[in-house]
Structure formats: C-alpha cells, structure tokens
Write a structure and sequence with these properties.
Helix content is 32%, strand content 20%. It is built from 20 helices and 27 strands. The two termini are 49 Å apart.
C-alpha cells in the first residue's frame, strides 16, 4: 500500500499539472483575439500551425475551451481563412480545424448565430458567455486526463549546456521503441537549448550495413528530427584502441582465452578466470595477436578487470574487445578487433561531450557498469537517465527476432506493414504526425506499460478522417446486380467532391447507370418492396429479389428519388455496371504472434501466427486509377486504406492495405463485413 506521504505527493503533482493546463488554456484564450487583427492574422496562423505540428489539440489530449475559442476566432475571419484552409500553407492548422469541425458539427450552427455575417473577424461578445452552453462535449481543464508528462528535470542540467545522443545500431530499421528514444532525446535537447547527436553504434560488422544506415537516417528525417551532428563509433576506433592499451598497461584490463560458454558460467558463479592475474607483458602479447587477427588471437577477448564478486553481475569483468575478421561497412578490413557497446559507448559519450545519456530502463542494471568504466578510463562523467521501454501487445521489438522473419521469408522485408518498424507502420497507414503525437503523449515516465495499439490508431483516425478522400468498392465474391427499370437509358456522369467536408481532397467523376453492383452482404439484407438509399444518388424501391439456395442472386426495382433519405433503414454503397471499374486487392493483416506478451523465457517460434495476411478481391470506382502509392483513402462503409501498389494496367489489381481505426476487431470480421 502507498504511504500517506506518497499519496499526498501524487495529489500535489496532479494539482500542479492541472494548474499548468489551466494556465495554458488562459494563454490561448488571451492569444485568440490576435486572429482578428488584420496585420497579424497570418503570423498568428503560422505560429499556431507550428505549435500543432505534434499535437491533436491545443492543450492536453482532449478538446478544451481553448480549442473552441481559437477555432471560432479563426472561423470568424471568413473567406480570408477559408482560402488558406483550402491551400497547403498551414497544413497542421487546417487539419486541427477540420478535425474539430467533423467531430463537433454543431459548431457550424453556433457560428451562424455569433459570428458577424460579413466574416470580418469580429466575434460577438456573447460568444464567451455562451461557450459553456455549447451542445458539444467540452471537457474542463480541471478534469483533463494527464496521460504523460515532460515536467521532469534532468540532473545537473543547465540551459545551453545539455547534450543528448541517440545511438542506433545499424543492424536493422528503426522500430517504434527507437522512435520513442529518438523523440525523447530531441525533446530534452530542445528543452535545455542544447545539442542532439545521432551516433551510429557500428561496432559489429557481422550484422551491420550501409543500407541500414541510410534507412535509419531516412526514418529520422520522417520523424522531423534534425540532429546537430551525425557521427559513428567507428570514427573513434583508433582512440578506443589506445584506451584499451592504456587500461591493459594499468592492469585494469586483461586478455582471456576462456571458451565463451565457460566464461559465462564463471561470471554467473563469481569464479575468476585463470587469465585474470597474468602479467601485463603477457596481456600485451596476446592483445597484439588479437589486433592482427591471428589464429591465437581469435581465441581471445579483452576483459575489464572490475569486480568478480559484485552482486551486480554486469560488473563481473565484462568483455571490452572481440576478434572479428569480417570487413566493416565503413572502414573495410583495416581492423580485426572491435569494441563492445559496454566499452565504446561510455568513452564516446564522454569524448563527444554528451552530458545526459538517455536509455530505456531495461539497461538499468548496467548503469553501475557504465559509471565504473568511465571511472577506470579517467574521462568526464556522463549522467544516465532511464525512461520506460515502449512495449506493445502481440509485438516483437527484438531486432534479432525481426531478422528471423526477414531471413525466413515470413515478411516482405524490414518495411513490411506487419512489422513495428517506423517504415512498416507508416506503410500500414499510420501518419508520422500520429506517431509523434502518440509517443509524446506518453511523456518521459519511467513506469513500464504494455500498450495496446488501439490508442495509436485512434489518434491516426482523428488526423486522416477530416482530409482523406472517399471512394467506393464492392467485393467481387457474390456481388449482386440491381437493375433499375426507370434508371438512365444512357449513362451520365456527375462531378462530386471526394470529401464532402474538405474541398482540398478534390473531385471525382461518378457514373450513373441503369444497372449497378451491390455487395452480397447488403443485397441479402434487402426485402421485396423495401425502400433503400443509394448513397450519392437517392432512394430506390426494390420490387423483386431473386434467390438461389437462400442467397440473393439479382435484384430489380425503380428509382424513387423524391423519397426521404431519413425514412430508409439501409444506406448502400454501389458501383455502376461499366467496364471502367478497376480491380482491387484489399489486404487485411494480423499480428505476427498469438501471445499478448512474450516473457524472456518464451520461445517466440512457438507463438507464431500461422496466417497473418488475407487478400480480398474487389472492384473499385474508376477514379481510383489516379491513386498514388502511400495515399490514404476511405472506402465508404468499409474503412480506411492506404494504397500500397497503384494502378499500372488492368491485369494487375490496385493493392489497398486496411488501416486499423482504433476499434478492436479480428481481421476475419472485416473480411466478411462491409
């Protein structure tokens, strides 16, 4: 149970967070009138646009009064804002504005009442009085749920004097856990007006390549992180070797030829190696054998002489250098020995001027080793600051295990949409904005959590829904033809918006014909004599339903365009019966493993999901010929999709990958449902 002191401390922290949120709301309310000042309007837009780059709302993680007041001030400028909203000048501000309008449509009615008709930028004084009476759910700041906080001070941090580093190993692509580490390092560097170094920990030539370096740099750019310097541990190989020789000369390191398995047992049992007390001269002789990569040298490794009786087993003479004859992707075959992370990282951190080394708390037990190595080397101390590792259900983040899927052809590669890599989840349809917002919403907490993916996809939906174009698809299997007796004898075309509430999505051409295609699921819901609504057209009365073995095979009816849309139960998507329709392959994906959380002792191979990808043939409207790779759309009444393979020719389908929307459902459910 928590003590009264701990509970009081938590209450004080919550009160402090609530006070800070209230202050932020007050600042935005005070700032809002600037949008009404003609000369300052675009500056206000630019400032708010930059602020919203990483945020869904102005304050916290739910809509507040600040959002409503700023939104109304912006809308009150009339055509001046409307013209900018339809452009790409302020994309984050437009995304925020559209998202609020889509979620709270009543704002449009409120504006008609309180905003001057000319749209000159003056909001009626009653607006602020009526704000609490809005017919929308506006959560008061005092009740704001604080999900993550950055209200954390780094030890001994000074403004202008902080340097952080992000040290990826170029042995795979960045995954979502790396993205958290990267953004936290960026955050603290910016908070203290310091520096951020991206350093590639390229000390294992057997696993690393230039391809991984290039893709990691691309991922960093995707996440809008700009490092003050990009370095490589291999830049310091000569200095690291000198340091290793210095420690050998001081009796703080020794060369050991104990077989690896035996060495591991001895470290676990606290048994000193037979080589631990050999002379400095003998150590140098064996070290030189290692450096040239001789047969004798390849039997050895260099170990630090720390404390074999330490309770913390990371201090039990860790390995500093190993022999490796494989050429390095940057320095070629120049070296035959390479430093371990435990040896190289503390040294390079100190030499590069890193003041605070941020790393996930899975390495917490190695912190004592890190400080001891710095002490033995006699270099400047670096502060370690732990943060919680980002863990997701049904997800593997180990690069070794992910490499197994790649090597065994279980996935397309490191950018497979089933992978938790940055490129994989973006290919799945996650936006970079959503990823940044999600990670930053977690704050800098040290508490371990097993996260659900739903929250991340919910954030993504809020970003894409207000702007992504709408299209129509009908599943090929079992599709049913509806003949409209009084339908157009000659097909005609109308140009309609791709998104009814966002003009920036553009237009599309819809063809209206006498015969139209319906999904089998929809057709089997229709009764004879029932009136239905054909979306983007109007009502129709289905007079005849033909079945075979209980399944609907064809429908016949008449248009009833004067009918009320409100009176029908079924609102149906449809496609015209024309040759210009395109073939689609709708891809549904599932987790790669079947166990929600894999423990350290679990064999991941025993938890493999046998089927993780389905492809469902469908037909799509002709406008989808113009889709580009990576473009996100909504197939009406089916969900959100990202174009993975655009139209090339009629014999190859357009490949659309289903994007989760935050609602839990098994993939098989969405295959059979519209």
């Amino acid at each position: 149970k928590k003590s009264n002191f701990e509970l009081s401390k938590q209450n004080l922290e919550k009160e402090s967070q609530i006070t800070e949120l209230r202050n932020q709301v007050d600042k935005w309310i005070a700032f809002a009138p600037v949008f009404s000042v003609g000369a300052e309007f675009e500056k206000a837009c630019s400032c708010t646009n930059s602020y919203l780059t990483l945020r869904t709302f102005l304050v916290g993680y739910n809509i507040t009064i600040a959002d409503v007041i700023v939104w109304t001030r912006l809308a009150a400028t009339g055509q001046r804002w409307e013209s900018l909203r339809k452009s790409t000048k302020f994309p984050h501000l437009a995304r925020w504005y559209n998202s609020i309008l889509c979620q709270y449509e009543s704002l449009g009615d409120i504006l008609l009442k309180f905003v001057n008709k000319r749209g000159a930028g003056q909001v009626n004084e009653n607006m602020s009085k009526e704000i609490d009476g809005l017919p929308i759910k506006v959560e008061k700041t005092a009740k704001e749920k604080v999900e993550g906080s950055f209200d954390i001070e780094l030890p001994d941090a000074e403004i202008g004097g902080v340097c952080t580093r992000f040290p990826p190993e170029p042995s795979g692509f960045l995954h979502i856990g790396h993205a958290k580490a990267l953004l936290l390092n960026q955050y603290f560097a910016q908070k203290y007006k310091g520096r951020l170094i991206v350093r590639f920990d390229d000390t294992n030539p057997a696993k690393e390549s230039s391809e991984f370096v290039e893709n990691i740099l691309a991922d960093i750019n995707t996440l809008s992180v700009k490092a003050d310097a990009v370095t490589f541990t291999s830049d310091y190989f000569p200095d690291l070797m000198k340091m290793a020789e210095k420690l050998i000369g001081q009796g703080k390191a020794y060369v050991d030829d104990t077989p690896r398995e035996q060495m591991q047992r001895e470290r676990m049992d606290g048994i000193e190696s037979k080589c631990r007390d050999q002379s400095i001269e003998e150590n140098f002789s064996l070290w030189n054998e290692m450096v040239v990569g001789s047969e004798r040298g390849r039997q050895c490794c260099l170990r630090g002489k720390l404390d074999m009786q330490a309770v913390n087993k990371s201090l039990r003479d860790p390995v500093y250098y190993r022999c490796n004859p494989i050429p390095h992707h940057r320095v070629g075959a120049r070296y035959k020995v390479y430093p371990t992370y435990d040896f190289a990282c503390p040294y390079v951190d100190s030499i590069e001027g890193v003041t605070h080394a941020l790393r996930s708390n899975e390495y917490h037990d190695r912190n004592e080793q890190y400080y001891r190595v710095l002490e033995d080397m006699g270099v400047k101390k670096v502060h370690i600051w732990d943060f919680s590792r980002l863990n997701f259900v049904y997800t593997l983040l180990s690069k070794r295990k992910l490499q197994w899927f790649v090597d065994n052809g279980k996935v397309d590669g490191w950018n497979d949409p089933r992978f938790p890599t940055v490129q994989g989840i973006l290919r799945r349809g996650l936006t970079a904005d959503a990823l940044r917002q999600f990670i930053l919403s977690q704050g800098a907490s040290k508490n371990q959590n097993l996260m659900e993916w739903d929250k991340l996809w919910t954030i993504n939906k809020k970003i894409v829904d207000p702007v992504c174009p709408r299209h129509t698809a009908v599943l090929k299997e079992g599709r049913v033809l509806l003949t409209l007796r009084n339908g157009p004898e000659v097909p005609f075309v109308r140009i309609i918006p791709r998104h009814k509430k966002y003009e920036g999505a553009g237009k599309k051409a819809t063809t209206f014909t006498k015969q139209i295609w319906l999904d089998s699921t929809d057709a089997n819901l229709i009764s004879e004599g029932e009136e239905v609504t054909l979306m983007d057209w109007g009502n129709a009365i289905v007079e005849k339903v033909e079945r075979h073995n209980g399944t609907v095979t064809s429908l016949c009816g008449n248009l009833h365009l004067e009918g009320s849309v409100k009176s029908t139960k079924l609102k149906l998507t449809w496609l015209p019966e024309i040759s210009e329709l395109v073939s689609l392959s709708l891809v549904e994906l599932d987790y790669l493993i079947t166990k929600k959380k894999l423990e350290e002792e679990d064999d991941f191979l025993s938890a493999l999901n046998p089927v993780t990808r389905w492809e469902i043939p469908a037909m799509g409207d002709a406008n989808m010929r113009n889709l580009k790779r990576g473009e996100i759309i909504q197939l009406e009444r089916k969900g959100y999709y990202i174009c993975d393979a655009p139209y090339l020719r009629s014999t190859r389908p357009i490949v659309l990958i289903s994007i989760p929307d935050g609602r839990q459902r098994p993939p098989t459910a969405s295959i059979t449902a519209n």
